[in-house]
UniProtKB/TrEMBL annotation:
Organism: Monodon monoceros
PROSITE patterns: C2, DH_2, PH_DOMAIN, RHOGAP
UniProt KW keywords: Cell projection, GTPase activation, Guanine-nucleotide releasing factor, Synapse
Chain coiled-coil ranges: none
Protein name, as recorded: Active breakpoint cluster region-related protein
Amino acid sequence: MEILLIVRFCCNCTYALLYKPIDRVTRSTLVLHDLLKHTPVDHPDYPLLQDALRISQNFLSSINEDIDPRRTAVTTPKGETRQLVKDGFLVEVSEGSRKLRHVFLFTDVLLCAKLKKTSAGKHQQYDCKWYIPLADLVFPSPEESEASPQVHPFPDHELEDMKMKISALKSEIQKEKANKGQSRAIERLKKKMFENEFLLLLNSPTIPFRIHNRNGKSYLFLLSSDYERSEWREAIQKLQKKDLQAFVLSSVELQVLTGSCFKLRTVHNIPVTSNKDDDESPGLYGFLHVIVHSAKGFKQSANLYCTLEVDSFGYFVSKAKTRVFRDTTEPKWDEEFEIELEGSQSLRILCYEKCYDKTKVNKDNNEIVDKIMGKGQIQLDPQTVETKNWHTDVIEMNGIKVEFSMKFTSRDMSLKRTPSKKQTGVFGVKISVVTKRERSKVPYIVRQCVEEVEKRGIEEVGIYRISGVATDIQALKAVFDANNKDILLMLSDMDINAIAGTLKLYFRELPEPLLTDRLYPAFMEGIALSDPAAKENCMMHLLRSLPDPNLITFLFLLEHLKRVAEKEPINKMSLHNLATVFGPTLLRPSEVESKAHLTSAADIWSHDVMAQVQVLLYYLQHPPISFAELKRNTLYFSTDV
C-alpha cells in the first residue's frame, strides 16, 4: 500500500512539475497565435505579441529536440544505444546516373539505403547501399575535391514540360473529383502524376554535396537547395564534436541497423504533392513581396548578403539575392523582392559571407564557395500573409537576427492589367501611343533595357529569372515615366537584375498584351495545330496581323532573347526558360478578356499558361523572322483555325 502511495505521489509530482508547465506554454502559444490573427499590424501591442509568440515557439522547439532522440533509438547487439538524428530523401550520383536514396544519420554512422521492392502484403524493408562511421567521414574542401563524375543535366525544357504535365494532371484530378468521377480513373491519374513528380524530383537537383570516407571512397549527392546542404553538413559536424571511434559493422549489426530504419524513419514519403492528403494545404499561388531590412548579431565585420528560397513542386528553389553589404556587423539592405509562388508553403532566408578568394572554387560547378553565416525558415500561413498590409517578422539563426517584411498578392489580383490614367508616361500606356510620341519604331525603354542587359548582363546566371530589387525597379519605372535626363547614368549604375525586372514590368503593365487581346484566341488555336505546315502558315499570318509597333517590338525582343539563350552554358537561361518567363507577360489577356480564359487562381500552370509559353517558344525556335519579309509576303491565311 505504501509503495502504491509513493508511486502515485511521484506520478503527481512528475505531472505537476514537468507536464503542467509545458502544457501551459502550449496553450499560451495557441492563444498568442489567435491574438495575433485578430490584432491590427499597426497596433502598439502587435510587435510585443510577436516577440512573445516567438519565445514560446522556440521554447517548445527546444523541448521537442530533447524529446525526439529518445523515441528514435535502436539497441545494437552489443547493448549500445544508437539514435536516429536525421533522415531524408537525397539524390545520389551513382555509376553516372541519378538514384533516389533514403539517407539515415545516426549518432555515430551515416547510412545510405534504398527501399526494397516487395510484393503486396509483405513488410517493406530497406537495402543498405553503403555506410560511413562518422569518425571516418570528412567533407573535402573545394580545392581538395576532385571534379564530379560527368552527369548530364536534365534539359530545362523537359523539366518545365514535367511541371506542365503535373499541373494538367492536377487539374484533371480536381475535375474528376468535382464531377464525382470513378475512383479507378482518379487513381490512374494520381499514378501518372506521381511518376512525373518523381522524375522531376530526381532530375532537378544540381547543388553538389560531397562526402568522403577516410578509407578511400567518395560519394556525391545532388541537392536542390543550399539550405538543405547546410542542414546535413551541420548535423554531421555537430555529432563529430563528440569522442567518436572508428568501427566496422558485422553483417548481423548491419542487418539490425538497416532493419530498424523502416520503423525509426521520420520522413515516410517522397516529398511530392501526390503523396499529400486531400485536406492538406495546396500552398500559395501568386506573388510574395519580401523586404529584407537588416541583420544583427555578427561578431566581426564581413561582406554580407542574403538569399531567399521558396518551395515549388516538392523542392526548394533560390529566388532572390540582396546586394553585398561590405565590411559591416549590421548590414541594412532594405531591399524589396517580388517572388512568384507555385504552391509554396515555406520561405527560407540564408545569410552568407561573400568570399572573394578565387582559390576557393568548387570544382563541381566552378563557383566560389561563400560561407553560410546563418539560415532560417518560416511557414507561409495564408491567414497571416494574405493581407493588404505588410507583415514584419524576425528570423533568428545562429545568434543572428534578420528582420524582414512580407505581403502576398494572389494570382488573380496580380494578373490584372491596369491602364495608366495619365498618358504622359510609358508604363500602362498603349505601345502605339508611346512609339508615336517618341517617333520611334521600338519604345525607348525597351531599347535601353535590352542594350544594358546585352552590355553587362547577358552572362548573368538566371538573368530575367532572378528577381531584381523591387525598390530599384520602381525607381527606374519613375525615371522612365518622367523621361528624366539622368536615365542613362542611372541605368549604368543599377543592378542588372533590376533592369531586367523593369523590362518585364513594362510588358506586364501594358494595358493590353503585346500580341493583343483580339488575336489571343487565334494564337491559342494556332499553337494547338498538329500539322506543321498549317501551324507555320497560321503562326506567320498572326504575326502579320499585329499592328506595326507591336510586331516590330516583338521581333526586336525575340532576337534579344535568342542572343541571351546563346549564352545558356554560362547564364543557365535556355529558350524554354525565357519562354516561361516572358510567354504569359506578352500574351496574357487584359482583365476584361482574361475572365473567359482564367480557371482556378491556384492553377498557375493552367492550360492557357502552358499554351502562352508554347507560343513564344515556337517563335524563339523559329529561324530569324524579318519584318520586311513578313510585310512583302502577300499570301493571306484565315485566322479561323
